[in-house]
Model the fold of this input.
Amino acid sequence: MIQSLSSSISISMVDVVDINAQLLEHFEKKVSGLEAVHFCIHQTPLEKFFQQHKERYDLITAFFVLYLIPSWHEIVEKTIIRLKNNGCILLAEEIGDFRAVKICPSESQTEEEKSLREIYKRFWDNLTEEMGAPLYSLQSFSDLGLLRDILRLLEIGGFVSLEYEDIWWKNNEITFEELIEIFRGKNLATATVAVYSKNSIQEFCKRFQDRVCDWDRVKGKKIPRKEGHRFWTIRLNESPEVVAEQFGKVYKGLVTEFEIHQSALGEIAAEGF
Ligand SMILES: C[S@@+](CC[C@H](N)C(=O)[O-])C[C@H]1O[C@@H](n2cnc3c(N)ncnc32)[C@H](O)[C@@H]1O
Done:
């Protein structure tokens, strides 16, 4: 996969951390034949694991996990500290429709496909905003944007080396009615760690239909969907302490900048421009 990891590495000890017992059972079954590796399973939140275990690792992986942790930046900082010198972090995250980042229309689409995807994006935006957990919240990590920017700045400063690889595929096309049907009668927990009740979801779907003024035009039309995963390799070029400190500083700097812009925009809006 990624060049810098392609040289053969031998792994003898692995700590596996997850809060979910079923996930860990599934994992144990999958690795049951691997006798050369000793797996130590911890059913505990990552935050607690890092408080209780002070070992240093050559490699730490977090596949599709950070987006579920509101304090993701603290976890990344702690992860860096727990690496050995020249240690490596492997991350995998969603970048497709699920994350609503690449959901915007592309040039190769017909006008009708573009308009369907715009409405599809509006569905997810409205849902998360109404439920008080916007997908693009700075604190939620939901689109990887802030982490990506921090890592790029650390790379420019020579603190880390970065590589990433994207894999894309087309998902089954779906109509808006099918999309809404998926939610009917269900409670929903989203990637931004909000839980929506059956009733609020049902009411949302009704409001969404009313809001899409040309509902009759989109009814029955298949929405083209695109899914993707991004795999990151982050290798430390400085000591873990130095990289972690820089990570914290850059995070705080970007958040402060963002907040200043937000408040300036708020003042402009209040002045009625
Ligand atoms: C989408 S699954 C990915 C599972 C696995 N890493 C994989 O790639 O198949 C997300 C996992 O993150 C776990 N998780 C969420 N918050 C966590 C936390 N604070 N500490 C540890 N695990 C957490 C969930 O229990 C779930 O198993």
